Amino acid sequence: MSTTQSGIQTIATGAEPELIGPFLAAQLHDERWRDCTVAHISGGMSNLTYAVHSGAGELILRRPPLGNILPTAHDMAREYRVITALQGTAVPVPRTMVATEAGEPLEFATFVMERVVGHVCRSGFPAGFVTTAAERRQVGDAVVDVLADLHKVDPEAVGLGDFGRPAGFMERQLRRWSKQWDASKFEELPSLDRLRDGLGAAMPEVEQPHTVVHGDYRLDNTVLHPADPSRIVAVLDWELSALGNPLSDLGSMLAYWAQADDDAVLVAGRVIPPITALEGFPTRAEVIERYAARTGFDVSEMRWYVAFAYFKIAVICQGIAARAKGGSMVGEGFDEARGNVAPLVEAGLRVLEGKEPI
Question: Where do the H-state alpha helices sit in the chain?
Fold first, then answer.
């Protein structure tokens, strides 16, 4: 197995070419897809992503993880529906092409979409791209603006009026991720229970508008324009999307948003490289201010949403560790997930209790 700079691994476990080629040839009515290569794209830790190449071109295929998975955690039809619905809005998304349920004709649910040309920046920027503080500011502002634009989309107008039950969204989110924790834990962690209980006792009182929420919005779930740092050309990984409270998205992004002056607790709670700590990126306070100005939403209780995000990310990491332990994931890096859980919980507790800035 080899890995390129783009994060593509020459491995097709879970999406073998002898299965995918005939599937695409039939679905897309083009026999050139029958002779294809399939490569796993690293970076994600939930649904699996593959680049498919043939004489007909290049596509992206998504499928759930291998083996047993937690209920509703990897809903392919949901991801396909929201990406399709958002085409034509101010939110940049790939063009979707095919979606199937498990068993027709593949044994797993999947969907296929175009591959968008651009940069997915997880650990840094490509050579010669985003080299100045001013350009890093452009990237940061674009990430905030696209999130705000998503939350300004009218769900009814794009056919997503029934995409969930937005009333009581955060209460259900807290229950859901608490259940996910119970389903995936293989050791006790009293501090996580303390964070969960603290979140339940301090549920925000301000009612927010009901919007489409991404569920895991951050810089490395976007594709930056190949030459223009001020433009995002696609938002990826919509498997956790729903109708709900938009501040859950903002809180999640802020939990990932590193700053140069973060203390040891927040540094320990980082689960992705701290690109946003580089000179030029807006601070978390500036992110909140820009988002509020663009949406008009009340952001006075953001501390709770950031703490909840740490809780949710901790539970996701625990789920990844559990699947890695069971051998049901493809790719590298999953063994590290277990070690992220306790630091994330500590960061969440400190933010919730007002001991850390947001």
Answer: 17-28, 76-86, 133-151, 169-184, 190-201, 246-256, 264-268, 284-295, 302-325, 337-352
